[in-house]
Amino acid sequence: MSKSVAGPEIEHLIQLLAKVPGLGPRSARRAALQMIKKKEQLLGPLARAMDDAYREVRICGTCGNVDSRDPCTVCTDPRRDRGVIVVVEDVADLWALERAAALNALYHVLGGTLSPLDGIGPEDLTIRQLVERAATGEIREIVIAVNATVEGQTTAHYITDQLQGLAITVTRLAHGVPVGGELDYLDEGTLSAAMRQRTKL
Ligand SMILES: [Zn+2]
Q1: Model's pTM, two decimal places?
Q2: What confidence tens digit (pLDDT) does each residue in 82-91 have?
Q3: 159, 86 Cβ separation under 8 angstroms
Q4: Ligand 1: distance of its center to the CA of 59 in Å?
């Protein structure tokens, strides 16, 4: 145990902050100190924002997004194309695609990927709910935007099988050369996938 430099309230704050992704113990100390110095401008508003989020946050019963309302802001947005569902593993992926303004569509958060070795089967994910959404007749396309991992691709194939028989186009993300990327720096898997999925100029 390292020696405490502050009272238990401040030590507790530092310990919790150190659990935030991206913050280690050192950054947590710096963050805590800044908050304490800016008690009125930062610590107070932050404490209230966290309390609000804690009380209001919920998981959307339709798509699995996290929001302060259910159905969520994305699901109730009338400007979206309601015929397309983008399937992602995690809420972080949904947010990343939204930041990129990749597609103005609906989403479905799986909550992970199939992984028999870890004991994660279809019933542990929201695949059944996805198939139910897909079967309503309003959906034209399902874009499977899962990670390019073995588990991600296994999950994509499983979902494609489950959607068989529905009049829906199932697509997946292209895998290839990153924008601004140099061929010489790419791994063989990325390079060969990019070659296989080459498009006409
Ligand atoms: Zn939603």
Answers
A1: 0.81
A2: 999 999 999 9
A3: no
A4: 8
